[in-house]
Amino acid sequence: MKKLSPMKQLVNRRQLLFSGLALAVLSPRAVLAKEPDLRAQAAHTPQPHKPAKNGKFIVMLDPGHGGIDSGAVGEEGSMEKHVVLEIAGNVRQMLNNHPYIEARLTRDSDHFIPLYQRVEIASQHGADLFMSIHADGYTSPDAHGASVFALSNRGATSAMARYLSDRENSADKVAGLKVEEKDHYLQQILFDLVQTNTIKNSLTLGKHVIERIRPVHHLHSQVTEQAAFAVLKSPSIPSVLVETSFITNPSEEKLLGTTAFRRKIAGAITEGIVNYYNESVVHNRRVS
Length: 288
Ligand SMILES: [Zn+2]
Description:
It contains 10 helices and 6 strands, in the order αααβαβαββαααββαα. The chain is of the alpha/beta class. The radius of gyration is 19 Å and the shape is globular.
């Protein structure tokens, strides 16, 4: 097969994006429009029964696991599902002090939610951002530090990213559910193109969160890693998964058990989200 130059690929992708979006919004008004506002259209997939947003930027926080799925369990018996519920609750509380941001939770108690439903909850709430919060384990107790992950359409960027995405994606199997792909929002090609733009925004969000975690906690990875996490498959909502620490590392299990650390890491995550909001929303409003 003839290999295309990067520039040619870019042009072709752009042409496809135009034609795909034109198909998706095919209405007399849209056809008459001189130039489609790609950014606005990419950000608006059909979202039925959307509760009022009151003009606020909606952040959907997703404490990982819950109910029958305890997540990773530390040597001392700490369960990931409880730790991440606390941290996510802290982030919600801190974010809600912001005048233009409203944070919501996919779960505020110890119950199980299938992965695809977490994605749908974010969509139903008209979320502008989705963040799944975890404290997973690894085969080696030496693994430690925080890391941030975004979706990859092509495969994992590291062995750790692959390992963690495989583990996370098996959450539904714990509850005996048949793992299904729920990518029914848009035609596949349009889905892929819109999602490419979403992943770009997810990486920006990841960068901001890593920058704020760096001064307060060890980073397992200095950049946002990517893998095929099912919970990050929202086509239009920038989504990241934050591993706050490894619960299988004895000293991090102790840290995760303290109120001080839970608030510290929640504070860093909150600042990362606010910085993303300032860059992507406030800045875009100023230039448009
Ligand atoms: Zn987890």
